[in-house]
Request: fold
Amino acid sequence: MSTSNKQAYQAKLQAQLDEWSANIDALEAKARQADAQARIDLQAEIDTLKTYQHQAEAKLAELKTASDQAWQDLKQGIEQAHDNLKRALQTATDRF
Reply:
């Protein structure tokens, strides 16, 4: 794929990460308003989300520095990290 495809892919991933970051921030705000047990449960979910978020951000950073040929090799790992974050965020949002 060309450099422009790589850049478009990066932009799409960054936009999704930004959206999910806002969702995590909203869950943190909700946790601050919750009773003690719900706050503990929600904080555990948020900690998991942040782990997945950091993994996805690290993969995106790898993508940004990858050559035009190598970025396709990274794509599967990037998509796995994004899928993990997406599923965990959906689970947390559904639970709380």
